[in-house]
Amino acid sequence: MSAFVKLISSDGFEFTVDRKAACVSNTIKQMLSADGNFMENTSGEVRFPEIPAVILERVCQYFYYKLQYQNTPAKAIPAFALPPEQALELLKAANYLDT
Amino acid sequence: MGTVKKGKFKIEPFKHAVKMDPNYGEKTWKILEDAIQEINNHNASGLSFEELYRNAYNMVINKFGDRLYSGLVDTITRHLESIAQRVEATQGDGFLRELKLRWTNHNKSMQMIRDILMYMDRIYVKHQHKACVQDLGLELWRDCVLRQPSIKPRLLATLLGLVRRERGGEVIDRSLMRASTLMLVDLGLPVYVEEFERPFLQATKEFYMVEAQEWMTTCDCPEFLRRAERRLGEETDRVHAYLDSSTEAKVTRVVESTLIGQQKRALAEMEHSGLIPLIQQDKLEDLGRMYSLYRRVEGGAELMRQMMGDHLRETGKQLVLDPERTKDPVEFTERLLAEKDKYDKIVRGACCGDRAFQNAVNSSFEAFLNLCPRAPEYLSLFMDDRLKRGLKGASEDDVDSTLDAAMVLFRFLQEKDLFEKYYKQHLAKRLLSGRTVSDDAERSVLIRLKTECGYQFTSKLESMFTDIKTSTDTMRAYKAKRPPSAPPSEASTSGAGSSEVDLSVQVLTTGSWPTPNAQKCTLPRELEAVCDDFRHFYLRTHSGRKLAWQTNMGHADLKAEFGDRKHELNVSTYQMCILLLFNNADQLAYRDIAAMTNIPHADLQRSLQSLALVKGRNVLRKEPMGKEVEETDVFHFNEAFTSKFYKVKIGTVSAQKESEPEKQETRLKVEEDRKPQIEAAIVRIMKARRTLDHNSVIAEVTRQLAPRFLPAPALIKKRIESLIEREFLERDLHDRKLYRYLA
């Protein structure tokens, strides 16, 4: 099993991220680890037809951000930059990805 | 949502409704339904998780959650119904296997379905308070498959059948059983209990009822217990192997109560192999098994304890009341100790030292030991024997263990003061005759008695030891002053030859010693002189004291010539007096001897008996010959006396145990001694309480005196009356049952 997975945005951009990082999303984690042999599980690729690249990129950044700081005390965590105009889209994506 | 937000946002609702395809819900569901069917058919590899998840997600988001959920229920139900039919259709042994397979598949499918419907689980199910997908799967399986009228009884029958076959000794597929019970447990413990455990327990009960009946007719008690133990082991093993662990306690209880609980009395009372025969034969292992099984059922240990206690009481009673057995005090006590030892071993070895059992044994002992009025005397005689002879050369540990054992019996005695009396007598004899084997052993008995009954109990005994010690010192001082040729005598006398008498005296404190003030016998003249000499010596250092010679306690060594044979005779003071008479005469009548010596009748008879009638010790000859000494008898010096030994010890024929009149006398004395004790107790109590009613006084007195003896209520009442007469107490004017203390 590869240590990386490919996340593909609705507009065709591919993001290759650590499997560990991707698994910050519960949804992706289930997709990749489910007992059933779904397509995603076999190919290591997940397509998101409803998430554009610009949002998916932010999501991937968040995956790593989360991974890096998850065990740090709250005070020491720097703020995660977030352009206001993306907020709604990100919110939806987060809900979808159960992150 | 873990994203960190900065500042405040205002989210505005959409200004215009999003247009939605009216068939959107149905269309999306169709996709999902197809996928679910694919999954149920193990054909998921072509499916995209993301797509299914997204569809379910969108359905929930767009308020089609109900449609999605009910559709799921329908689909699964339909699927399971077809499964149920297929399971039903299997023949014979394949049934369980098929069920297990289907169950595994169902679980796998449900897991995948749960994954793709994760969003529904997270949002819709939570808000609507419905069963999550996983639980839904279990519920549907339970209702659509397990509880089908064609499956439920068949499953149960199959499972119970397998258990029965295994109990019958067959080997069954345990893993299949395990899978089936696990399935039931997975469906929820109540399901397991209802569908399997309860009928299983019922079947177990029936099975063992039959088996118990069968065993009762074919096995003896130990065999029954062995089998029961094995069965219990098997059942536990079975639970570990393929039942839920919660069943273990229940099934064990069922087996215990069926095999042991219901049969416990019949088993314990089995004629040749029940509890009593096992005890008689010291079958510790079987008893241990019995105990470990019986204690597990209600009332089992109690039954066993009671039977054991009753049996012990019964045998003990026979033992102490059997006149044959009570002839020899030492043997009697040894038997008691052996009995005690036996039961201790049983309690320790078979009953894990169970306190309740130990108490039962103890109380039984107490009960029957006190049935025997002579027990205190016999116990004291036993200790006397041990301290005189039995412990010679024994190691310290042996001494300790013997004494400990004796103390155990002592503890059971109710009439401890009677024991004290006897013990004092016996101790006095031992000390005066110097026959005690070991001072340490004597002292350790004292220490034991002291810890058991307190200082009061032993203070007199201790002062006896002190007397002996002081006497040794006095004698040393006396001998140092006297030229060795000078002679004398008392309690203990050593007279040698005719003129030189070597006197040894033990000065005893009156009151500490049990010596009856026997009248003094007439000592031979040469002895009188020595005695007077000692008296003068003693009174010089201890003026104001009174010395009384206890001629009944001493002993003497005499040198005697029988023709050309010389012997040294070791005799009692009385015997010495008698023998010295024969220095001046060859033949004396009984009456003459009595007159010349003043020895009390009984003692004289006894002394003469041992001088004339014991073979090998008969320095006198009696006429006429006969077994008893009569007042008309005449005694001759037996010149023909021979012995292999130079020293001849002539013991007094002293009845080891007391004769009836003596016993009565001791008893009377003890009873007399009790009176002041009871009175003291009453006064103590009344002084503290000022007023108290009759029954409380009795109870209180009994409690206070229990360590010494058990006073009869009538006796207490008499003492109270006597105290009232002497104006220590008075009756209350209004309530006759109430006593007042008069200070």
UniProtKB/TrEMBL annotation, chain A:
GO terms for cellular component: nucleus. CDD domains: BTB_POZ_EloC. SUPFAM superfamilies: POZ domain (SSF54695). It is found in: Nucleus. Residues 4-66 form the SKP1 component POZ domain. Gene3D superfamilies: Potassium Channel Kv1.1, Chain A. Pfam families: Skp1_POZ (PF03931). GO terms for biological process: jasmonic acid mediated signaling pathway; ubiquitin-dependent protein catabolic process. Keywords: Nucleus. InterPro entries: ELC1, SKP1-like, SKP1/BTB/POZ_sf, Skp1_comp_POZ. SMART domains: Skp1. Belongs to the SKP1 family. This is Elongin-C. It comes from Symbiochloris irregularis.
UniProtKB/TrEMBL annotation, chain B:
Keywords: Isopeptide bond, Ubl conjugation. One of its GO terms (biological process) is ubiquitin-dependent protein catabolic process. PROSITE patterns: CULLIN_2 (PS50069). The keyword Ubl conjugation applies. This is Cullin family profile domain-containing protein. The keyword RNA-binding does not apply. SMART domains: CULLIN, Cullin_Nedd8. Coiled coil: none annotated. GO terms for molecular function: ubiquitin protein ligase binding. It holds the Pfam family Cullin. Belongs to the cullin family. Residues 488-499 have a biased composition (Low complexity). It comes from the Eukaryota. Residues 476-499 are annotated as: Disordered. Residues 374-612 form the Cullin family profile domain.
